[in-house]
UniProtKB/TrEMBL annotation:
Domain HTH lysR-type: start-end pairs: 1-58
Pfam families: HTH_1, LysR_substrate
Keyword Transcription listed: yes
GO cellular component, one term: protein-DNA complex
PROSITE patterns: HTH_LYSR
Keyword terms, alphabetized: DNA-binding, Transcription, Transcription regulation
Family membership: Belongs to the LysR transcriptional regulatory family.
Name the record gives this protein: LysR family transcriptional regulator
Highest taxon of source: Bacteria
Sample GO molecular function, one term: DNA-binding transcription factor activity
Length: 302
């Protein structure tokens, strides 16, 4: 039995006439009659009573009509659902983010806007460091992730730089360098107690910082390496040392941390990067990537 047989039968039942049903379906009347006969033979019951003025439904035909309409409606609903999936309006995405990416206003704004525009696009959110997110993307466990400086670019992962921002130095309030408003020179970090996000977990920004220091002859003393950027700010707030973070993290621990600009130039910019599975930018993922890039290209809301 094919769906066209169901459609033929429903049309005949609704018109009560083979010729009128054939006209509505755009086929000839004899082939339509043959298809209905074949359907009845397949089911082993008579669905219609033929008479000179048309056809009537048998008891079996009335039961079959209800089921045929239900099946056709289900098929249409499935077709529409699959079309929405193909258009990226329906589905489920796993999206990760680093703690530092999440503190930028853009990341939660993009996630909120995705939920507003595409309420049937479910987002499964998780937090990890950049290395863990990159590995999860490459392994197919994540669809997309927001990070700062990518720590690696394995096969199967695409990178989209969304935004760039300068870095700042985070200092305990009682630190000698906390006073003043002008940008700190890189040489001011010489001999300072430096807290880093653990380099195996997120080498990007901090590897760049240490490389720049080495080139300029600046030698900070690394006293701690942590897994999350919020963790290093917790240690700064506790007075364990200073750190360097993206400017958008200025609002963290304002009661215990002073933030000062760092005159390091574009070499230490902190980008916001969207990583996605390569070759899978279709459906829901294509919708998400297009939305995020659209928002990144638009002016920041007032």
């Amino acid at each position: 039995m094919e769906f066209r047989h169901l459609r033929y039968f429903v049309t005949v039942a609704e018109t009560g006439h083979m010729t009128r049903a054939a006209e509505r379906l755009g086929i000839q009347q004899p082939p339509l009659s043959q298809q209905i006969r074949a359907l009845e033979d397949r089911l082993g019951v008579r669905l219609l009573r033929r008479h000179p003025k048309g056809v009537d439904l048998t008891d079996e035909g009335r039961l079959f009509l209800d089921e045929a309409r239900r099946l056709l409606a289900d098929a249409e609903a499935l077709t529409q659902r699959m079309a929405r999936i193909a258009r990226g309006e329906l589905g489920r995405l796993s999206v990760g983010f680093t703690s530092s990416a999440a503190t930028h206003a853009f990341t939660p704004r993009a996630l909120r806007e995705c939920r507003r525009r595409f309420p049937d696009l479910a987002l499964d959110l998780s937090e990890a460091n950049a290395a863990e997110l990159t590995e999860a993307l490459a392994a197919g466990r994540l669809h997309a992730a927001f990070v700062r400086v990518p720590v690696a670019h394995p096969p199967g992962v695409d990178m989209h730089t969304l935004l760039r921002e300068p870095v700042v130095v985070a200092l305990p309030l009682d630190h000698p360098l906390a006073a003043g408003d002008e940008p700190l020179a890189l040489r001011a970090l010489d001999g300072q107690l430096l807290i880093l996000v653990r380099r195996p977990g997120a080498p990007g920004l901090y590897a760049n910082l240490l490389a720049l220091c080495a080139r300029e002859g600046v030698q900070p003393r690394v006293v701690a390496e942590v897994e999350r950027m919020l963790s290093n700010l917790n240690l700064v707030a506790a007075g364990a040392g200073l750190s360097v973070v993206p400017e958008s993290m200025r609002g963290t621990h304002v009661h215990a941390i002073r933030y000062r600009a760092l005159a390091a130039g574009p070499e230490l910019e902190a980008p916001l990067t969207l990583m996605v599975r390569a070759g899978e930018a279709q459906g829901a993922l294509a919708t998400f990537v297009a939305l995020v890039r659209e928002l990144a290209a638009a002016p920041e809301p007032a």
